[in-house]
Amino acid sequence: QAESPTYKRVLLKVSGEALLGGREYGLDNATVKAIAEDVRDTVALGVQVCLVIGGGNIFRGVAGASAGMERAQADYMGMLATVMNALAMQNALERMGVQTRVQSAIEMSSICEPYIRRRAIRHMEKGRVVIFAAGTGNPFFTTDTAAALRAVEMGCEALLKGTQVDGIYSADPRKNPSAEFYTRLTYLEVLARDLQVMDAAAISVARENGLPIIVFNIHEPGAFREVMLGHGRFTTVK
Ligand code: UDP
């Protein structure tokens, strides 16, 4: 008998950093393709999937601000960076035969659809992967917050956060080998211990709406699909 996934509809947040591969800037095609394959295989399980992609591999508002730019202006550049990443992911998925739509929080009608909540839900019901670009459309926010917001708007049962490690630890396990791994945490534990998983605004949106956050390693081949089947290592925040 075929295994059945834990959730019917989820949002996967992929940071811009995750698309770097070994690079210091921009997109690594092989990495984008590997993540797209994992999304394709998860969709094949019958899971409705939407994506939020960050932009940190190209531009971050805070970096622009610390170089002397006006913060809001720099943040708009950061949001544009997320659109590039969304188009790259759309390209990779469509080449594998996965139907997709990009919806941007900032209108760019010649490139993608504008964000329309009910239309996005309809796309997902038809089995299309919806990629949300331009974050929330507002400066001073992050794509983590956009991910929590869109997940709630879409009625997703969980927010999957693909990171560089396999879950939440008491400290960065790449720097501190004795760091403790957590299987389960509450929203308040994440906030109180200042665990660097998502920013506080994102955690608050998830908490207020009872949206579970699942943190896993996006670079483990097939990890997204495995987590959807309840396998492998991950941290659940709820
Ligand atoms: N950004 C923004 N509002 C949003 C989402 C993103 O202003 O709702 C800008 C912000 O400057 C941020 C940049 O876009 O630094 C890239 O997003 P983020 O840093 O969240 O990307 P990630 O860290 O996931 O790669």
Automatic annotation (TrEMBL):
A single MF term (Gene Ontology): UMP kinase activity
Every Aspartate/glutamate/uridylate kinase domain range: 8-217
Catalytic activity reported: UMP + ATP = UDP + ADP
Compartments (UniProt record): Cytoplasm
Principal localisation: cytoplasm
Protein residues bound to UMP: G55, D75, T136, G137, N138, P139, F140, F141, T142, T143
One GO cellular component, as annotated: cytosol
Entry's family note: Belongs to the UMP kinase family.
Protein name listed in UniProt: Uridylate kinase
Originating species: Rhodovarius crocodyli
Lineage, broadest ranks: Bacteria, Pseudomonadati, Pseudomonadota, Alphaproteobacteria, Acetobacterales
